Amino acid sequence: MKPLKIGVIYSVNDIAASGIVNQLLQELVCKEIYSNSGFVKKAFSCKFDFHEVQLLGYDSEVVFLEPSQLEFISNVDFIVIPSRHESSSRIKSFTVHAPGNPWRRSDFGGKPMQLSMSNPVLMWYMLWELNRLRQSYPTLTEFLVSYEVTHHGPTIPTKPVTFIEIGGSEREWSIAEAHKVVAKAIKNAITYLSRVQGSESCTVSVGFGGNHYASLFTKRAFEKNECYGHIVANYIIKELALEDLKIVTEMAIRLTPGVARIVIEKMRSELRNNITLIAKSLELEIVTL
């Protein structure tokens, strides 16, 4: 088992995130510590098994954080961000995704045309654990479990970053059982990841196309053991000039460590061919759907 150093960051003003963190504090052995950062409102140093967890609560929304506000970043192996998920549809959900802006917009934090490094194997374990753990609670059986596509900030290309979210309305964000499921999924996924360092547990993949909730990629994750890093949605790809599509494709691949496969959902042949050309040049397996 490889000891890991993990940064968990959240907004103290986020109902879902605060509930998840309160549950994590019960799951881990933690002590409150002083932070001299003006950005951090709460700070804890935690341990479980051989792992160290730095848990930091910010007063601002985490999607708008800049790398300069994350002073601890050089000391951790990766970052996990528990959060609420907001959408107009208010779908009850547990979701995981990598952050980034794979187009020339940054409506919700981060930089345009920049992605964070993804953490595909960790996200895959989180997905499985969310799906398993929710089944123990009748109040959560209707919750969708899925990837989301790459979107919003912060954009941190130097360390893997993963969002794990509770979706719906304020009612869902406040459900104690949902907080417990996400906290346990985080802890269990870290444990699994530390045990399989260097071994093949899933096929690391990058997805192109599909809808925001990455329904087909999620299905393949469960059925074909594909673990996705970055997923670039169809609604984004349609907005990209071909040169920008080339940049985004190369960036999504580069910032998905260990990638072996590219999976492309149905799209215009011109767009698909451009993605395929880059994947072939990198000697990656290509699956078109």
UniProtKB/TrEMBL annotation:
<dbReference type="GO" id="GO:0046872">
    <property type="term" value="F:metal ion binding"/>
</dbReference>
<dbReference type="Pfam" id="PF04414">
    <property type="entry name" value="tRNA_deacylase"/>
</dbReference>
<keyword id="KW-0479">Metal-binding</keyword>
<keyword id="KW-0862">Zinc</keyword>
<dbReference type="InterPro" id="IPR018033">
    <property type="entry name" value="Deacylase_DtdA_archaea"/>
</dbReference>
<dbReference type="GO" id="GO:0051499">
    <property type="term" value="F:D-aminoacyl-tRNA deacylase activity"/>
</dbReference>
<dbReference type="GO" id="GO:0019478">
    <property type="term" value="P:D-amino acid catabolic process"/>
</dbReference>
<protein>
    <recommendedName>
        <fullName>D-tyrosyl-tRNA(Tyr) deacylase</fullName>
    </recommendedName>
</protein>
<dbReference type="InterPro" id="IPR007508">
    <property type="entry name" value="DtdA"/>
</dbReference>
<keyword id="KW-0378">Hydrolase</keyword>
